[in-house]
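Exercise 7. Given the encoded structure of a 199-residue chain, write a plausible sequence.
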């Protein structure tokens, strides 16, 4: 005749505690790795500067309220990161006046920017007979007479970041560059040239 040696098998409470402890340790390790990567790399956003602009046309009519403009911009983007590269998958640039878009969107070419590198683009932003709000047309006409126009150059796009051989998913990039433009009108026999300065 045999005798009972006690309860056999696993103990569900101890197994559940071990699983929870394992998951918790794994999550803490992942968060620690993410924090260390962030602390070592110190990722920073690309820095954008409008270096120059040439205004070839800036004509406002108030009745009807229409604007024709052609502006060539020189835009510089600098990657301040030591170990992170930037892929510009899509980058659109346009000009606005008092929160109203006054030019068509110009798409910049896709590009890669390495560590501490700078990229330079020279797009044309233009609009022919673009309808503007009547109050904006009056304000633009007044600004044109005073030879100072406040524009905001906007860029919207998608970027990816590269660390070693790892390439991240796409992120939205939004850039706003306010520019106070001084219009100096030089009259020649054939045309008017508008030169601008940034302050």
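Solution.
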């Amino acid at each position: 005749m045999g005798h009972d040696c006690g309860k056999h098998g696993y103990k569900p409470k101890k197994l559940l505690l071990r699983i929870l402890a394992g998951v918790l340790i794994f999550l803490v390790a992942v968060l620690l790795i993410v924090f260390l990567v962030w602390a070592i790399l110190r990722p920073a956003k690309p820095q954008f500067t409008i270096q120059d602009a040439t205004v070839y046309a800036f004509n406002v009519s108030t009745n009807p309220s229409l604007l024709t403009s052609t502006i060539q911009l020189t835009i510089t983007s600098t990657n301040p990161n030591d170990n992170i590269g930037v892929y510009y998958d899509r980058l659109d640039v346009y000009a606005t006046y008092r929160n109203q878009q006054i030019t068509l969107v110009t798409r910049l070419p896709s590009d890669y920017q390495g560590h501490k590198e700078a990229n330079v683009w020279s797009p044309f932003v233009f609009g022919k007979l673009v309808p503007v709000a009547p109050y904006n047309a009056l304000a633009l006409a007044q600004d044109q007479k005073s030879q100072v126009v406040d524009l905001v150059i906007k860029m919207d796009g998608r970027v990816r970041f590269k660390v070693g051989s790892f390439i991240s998913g796409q992120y939205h990039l939004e850039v706003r560059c306010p520019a106070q433009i001084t219009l100096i009108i030089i009259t020649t026999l054939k045309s008017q040239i508008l030169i601008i300065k940034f302050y």
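Remark. The longest strand covers residues 47-62. Students should compare their own answers with the one above.
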